[in-house]
Specification:
single chain, alpha/beta, GMP Synthetase, Chain A, domain 3, Helicase, Ruva Protein, domain 3, 4 domains, 3-stranded mixed sheet, 21 helices, 57% helix
């Protein structure tokens, strides 16, 4: 059942924003299963409440799809999460989680370390730059910007820097946050007349800033101005700053010149999709870490077929082991082929035109309406959802998606961000998107 939970976890990963998955879903552990009751363990009471309310139905639905039966989920606090004084991550007060989140942002993942990062030609420069920054030798630059598509390892490297620094100097104040966190915290500070404390925290109480998903700031003028000023303070004080994003700083739309200059002022490194030898090493490492014995021919087959990113490789390996467990069969080439076929159908059969037609049918509008210049609310929301689904279910770049809807890529990015934010705050929007995702998966993935 624990293998099934890993498969469910991996499915949820592709349905929610990456930072939300890392914050809420990744820390959940499998507890036990009794008949149709499944116990999942949460790190603390706050996360338990949030997960039950925000993600409980979604997780239950994935269990039902995977097992073929209705399961009752029971969320409990993991009392076995004992902390040891010898752990430098736990000794650092910036990384404890007393209430909603630690003073220094989010918890670093303990498994995101340099020794667990698989290095290949596609990421060697980024890895070397990250190690250099972690050791305080950034070749004269205290800033590093890592950018890549989803699932290439930029978050792993960013957090590996934080973990390494804390292992060497536990007293260092390492702040790990997303650009969305920064924005929300600033807005809250403005509403509560606490902006002075907000500025003090980031400008004078931070030694290392790990800022994820910088592209989220597109179009957020007030946040961009405040972040640029904060970065000036940190850089003048010789603090280390590591940024991650999906685009090169110069390509992020609706970003003011001041902030763009700060983001581009340090070392910039892209991470490309892993090549074939690297994919083999990744699969071998994942299999070993999970305790699975997968034959060499199966590893090589998966590496030759799953070429998109690391998450796709993880999905293939988890699907293989889960099917092997459920079907009580060996992890041979035949089983691997069925897993690859399932993943390929999901990713390749869905087209932008197909998504347009599905969304238009659900909302009772025409394809001409959804690509028109109209800003009527009954057209804007379906158009944003269709763009979001196109980004999620197809391999097309943002520019191509934008053109398909007669929009610039900056508008397409805004639409994707709008839907991602709306999913978190609007139950009705989240259900609409979930239903459309299921329709796309059921019509192309089975």
């Amino acid at each position: 059942m624990e293998e099934i939970w890993q498969q469910v976890k991996n499915s949820v990963k592709f349905q929610i924003p990456g930072h939300s998955f890392r914050m809420w879903i990744a820390p959940i552990e499998f507890g036990k299963a009794d008949a149709d009751d499944i116990v999942l363990l949460c790190p603390n009471h706050f996360s338990k409440k949030r997960i039950e309310e925000q993600y409980g139905p979604q997780i239950a639905g994935e269990f039902q799809k995977t097992t073929g039966r209705n399961c009752r989920l029971i969320f409990e606090v993991n009392n076995a999460c004992g902390r040891t004084q010898a752990d430098p991550l736990e000794r650092n007060p910036q990384l404890l989680l007393p209430h909603m989140q630690p003073p220094g942002g989010r918890l670093l993942r303990r498994d995101f370390t340099f020794d667990r990062f698989v290095v290949g030609d596609s990421n060697h420069f980024a890895y070397s730059a990250a190690v250099s920054q972690a050791n305080g030798n950034g070749n004269g630059s205290k800033a590093l910007f890592l950018f890549s598509g989803t699932g290439m390892g930029k978050s792993h490297l960013s957090q590996a820097i934080g973990n390494h620094i804390l292992s060497q100097a536990p007293s260092q104040r390492v702040y790990y946050i997303t650009a969305e966190d920064f924005t929300n915290e600033m807005v809250q500070a403005l509403r509560t007349d606490a902006i002075a404390g907000f500025k003090e925290k980031y400008r004078n109480q931070c030694d290392v800033l790990l800022l994820e998903d910088v592209h989220f700031l597109t179009g957020k003028d007030r946040t961009q101005v405040e972040l640029a000023l904060t970065l000036d303070y940190l850089l003048d004080a010789k603090k280390r700053i590591i940024f991650t994003g999906c685009y090169c700083p110069s390509d992020i739309p609706k970003m003011n010149d001041q902030l763009k200059s700060r983001l581009s002022g340090g070392l910039i490194s892209s991470i490309e999709p892993p090549d074939y030898p690297t994919r083999i090493k990744i699969l071998e490492r994942k299999a070993t870490d999970s305790g699975f014995h997968v034959s060499g021919d199966v590893i090589h087959y998966l590496a030759s077929e799953l070429t998109e990113n690391i998450r796709q490789l993880e999905s293939g390996l988890i699907g293989l082991t889960a099917r092997s467990s459920l079907l009580k069969t060996s992890m041979d080439l035949k089983l691997a082929e069925s897993v690859v076929l399932h993943l390929a159908r999901k990713q390749e059969a869905v087209t932008i035109e197909g998504i347009k037609k599905l969304v238009c049918k659900k909302f009772g509008i025409s394809v001409q309406d959804i690509v028109s210049s109209s800003r009527k609310q009954n057209l804007v929301r379906p158009r944003q959802i269709a763009i979001y689904l196109s980004r999620r279910f197809t391999r097309e770049p943002l520019q191509t998606i934008g053109r398909s809807f007669n929009r610039y890529h900056a508008t397409a990015l805004h639409s994707i961000n709008a839907v991602e934010r709306g999913i978190k705050t609007s139950t009705s929007l989240r259900r609409q998107v979930e239903l459309l995702c299921r329709d796309l998966e059921s019509s192309h993935g089975n």
